[in-house]
Amino acid sequence: MTTANKIYTVPDEVKQRSFIDKHAYQSMYQESVENPEGFWGEHGKRLHWIKPYSKVKNTSFEYPDVSIKWYEDGVLNVSQNCVDRHLETRGDQTAIIWEPDDPETPAKHITYKQLHEEVCRFANVLLANGVKKGDTVTIYLPMIPEVAYAMLACARIGAVHSIVFAGFSAESLAGRIEDCGSKVVITADEGLRGGKRVSLKKNVDTALKHAPVVEKVIIVRHTGGLDPEMASNPGIDVDYSRAREEVAPTCAPEEMNAEDPLFILYTSGSTGKPKGVLHTTGGYLVYASMTHQYVFDYHDGDVYWCTADVGWVTGHSYIVYGPLANGATTLMFEGVPSYPDAARFWQVVDKHDVNIFYTAPTAIRALMGAGDKFLDGTSRKSLRLLGSVGEPINPEAWDWYYEKVGEERCPIVDTWWQTETGGILITPLPGATDLKAGSATLPFFGVQPALMDADGNVLDGPASGNLVILDSWPGQMRTIFGDHERFVETYFSAYKGKYFTGDGCRRDDDGYYWITGRVDDVINVSGHRMGTAEVESALVSHPKVSEAAVVGYPHDIKGQGIYCYVTLMEGEVSSDELRLELRKWVREEIGPIASPDKIQFAPGLPKTRSGKIMRRILRKIAEDDFSNLGDTSTLADPGVVDDLVENRQHKA
Ligand code: 6R9
Predict the structure, then answer these.
(1) Per the domain annotation, does 61 fall within a domain?
(2) Range of 637's domain?
(3) Is residue 559 part of a domain?
(4) Which residue has a Cα nearest atom 4 of ligand 1?
(5) Ligand 1: distance of its center to the CA of 110 in Å?
(6) Burial letters for 547-556: b for 16+ Cβ neighbours within 10 Å, e otherwise?
(7) What's residue 631's pLDDT?
(8) Alpha-carbon distance 529 to 527, whole Å?
């Protein structure tokens, strides 16, 4: 039974302990949009400011003069807010619980005091290796505490970090290093995921060949799988464990302006190469910490676990910055949900008495598919609240999460947001919002969503359309690194004066928002965001490929799978072998997350007479829905469609 229309009212226990009830939500929301200056001026005080701000909001969505500034004359330091500020009151409290890939390896509990020393040492190592305020540092680390130390160390000295997900290939890493010009890269000997080793340092070495800008590679010893003594790049490689010993355990935090950059994070768009989304210091941290507190109803003493990887924005805002700014205990998990088996998440919940658990629909669907027997041996009694992020959650998965994992005791916060938004924009608040399975529900404070039709009209009442946001919020990205024009064109040109999200959305009779997925050429594979153009350009870089078109198709576990149509060079012959070769090629070009699920060799692609590939048709065929291919009469050669239908790759 699905419960898409059922309403789950807020349970009394949740209401009693939560920060925000329905009434507070309504009055705070109203104030936040009517008087953003006053509202955010007040809530900005949740941080420690070295020099308080006198201006709060200075933003314009006006095309083409988009400019976003929050707290612009305030001075603060993010690492001081996330670490030093807590030393007096909670120095001995655990800041980070680290749960390793292998359940037999002991977990680590890092207190705020220890975190302070580690961040200072890391900062000093960066300084000793020539990193200065304003420099970019690329971080290519697995899910180990050092990734948080490195992020906070950059923030401490005013360096701008750019984390590259450790699952990306050497090729992708090199592109991102070059784009932001990092002279320093931080990596580890190896990563460990599901018992498998990931050769990070080796990938960095390969990347260096294409990224001559790099002067230093700082190597954290993790698995011991590579001896940093045997530096493969003399004069470049730095053994972190040795360097750490040689520096002082304290380091004064740099005074940063609220609008100084904090980090760059590359994300996929519908065209071109990944964009360096730039977030700044003050507004980002106000927003990340405030959403973390209210959305997850985080109270002192709670143990909070977000299963994302720090290589994605969710890890930035809701493993590291938001929780630590709030003095929380945040759990960092190195492994995967299925290792050693599908009970692992629940065992970790029991082991560390996790109260708040935040994961992605793809993981929920995979665990649901593995069977309830993996829940049976675990108690999960500590859980109080469940969260979901990354893609729309289908009602079946929602129900299973709610009924089986949370035993109908734990509200689910389905949080909609994006790399660009810095923090959660549409979400229930556990004590305030009645839930509907599959709806992200209502906007967070200060967020004004609207739905647009194809002609650029704002739609009222219950409606479906493209989701835009009408005014700025403090966590919003400020620009695309090095390309402000692309920023303005990408987000503010489709609907002038409004931020375009790229998502389609429905608003129901109760004003609840239901995100329906991307309306552009971005696909969402296991919660990982990918531009079809990126996969296409990886495919056409193979010498045997002349043309490629990539679309998403519905996939039971991943949400969307990657379906590739490939036209070969004259004289090349299609074969299963070539299919494997192309799959491997894409993995090496981008990374395993971009592995094609289906490759169909096509002698021709459906094109308009002006040469545009008609993706609508390719999507339909990939979805196995060729009853209704729409109008094909504008195609240059309508015959290619028959061949495509004939040779479609059936669902595995
Ligand atoms: C945080 C994150 C952003 C895209 C976004 C949308 C999809 C994220 C969602 C959701 C439905 C949710 N998305 N959360 N769709 N319901 N709760 O995932 O950032 O990697 O940039 O992806 O993910 O399509 O536009 P990012």
Answers:
(1) no
(2) 526-647
(3) yes
(4) 418
(5) 31
(6) bbbbbbbebe
(7) 75
(8) 6
CATH code, domain with 581? 3.30.300.30
Specify which residues 426 forms β-bridges with: 416, 443
Quick: pLDDT tens for 51-82: 999 999 999 999 999 999 999 999 999 999 99
286 is written with which tokens? 């106000």
Residue 529 CA, closest ligand 1 atom number = 20
ipTM above 0.95, yes or no: yes
Side-by-side strand order, sheet with 458-459:
458-459, 449-452, 463-469, 499-507, 513-518
What size, in residues, is the chain?
Answer: 652
- Could you tell me which residues are annotated as the binding site for ATP? 390-392, 414-419, 503, 518, 529
Rounded Cα gap, residues 599 and 621, in angstroms = 13
Position 546 in a domain? yes
Please give the distance, rounded to the nearest whole angstrom, from the Cα atom of residue 97 to the centre of ligand 1.
26
User: Do residues 617 and 630 touch, judged by C-beta distance below 8 A?
Assistant: yes
Residues annotated in a binding site for CoA: 193-196, 314, 526, 587
What is the rounded distance in angstroms from the CA atom of residue 320 to the CA atom of residue 615?
Answer: 39
516 CA to centre of ligand 1 in angstroms: 10
**Which two structure tokens, joined as six digits, stand for 417?**
């947001």
Residue 443 CA neighbour count, 13 Å, CB half: 20
**Whole-angstrom Cα distance, residue 622 to residue 633?**
20
The total domain count for the chain is 1
Residues of the chain predicted below pLDDT 50:
1-2, 651-652
* pLDDT given at position 329: 98
pLDDT, tens digit, for every residue of 126-151?
Answer: 999 999 999 999 999 999 999 999 99
Local structure of residue 322 (DSSP, 8 states): H
User: Residue type for 430, please?
Assistant: P
pTM, entire model: 0.95
The number of C-alpha atoms within 13 Å of 38 and in the hemisphere containing its C-beta is: 8
Q: With CA atoms as reference, report the closest residue to 649 among 578, 615, 599, 606.
A: 599
Query: Which residues belong to the annotated binding site?
Result: 193-196, 314, 390-392, 414-419, 503, 518, 526, 529, 540, 542, 545, 587
Of 326, 634, 279, 300, the residue nearest 478 (C-alpha) = 279
Q: Looking at ligand 1, which residue's alpha carbon is closest to its atom 11?
A: 392
* Cis ω for the linkage preceding 340 (within 30 of 0): yes
| Residue 201: partners with Cβ closer than 8 Å, 6 or more residues away | 187, 188, 189, 190, 217, 219, 226, 232
Inside any domain, residue 281:
no
- For residue 91, what pLDDT is reported? 98
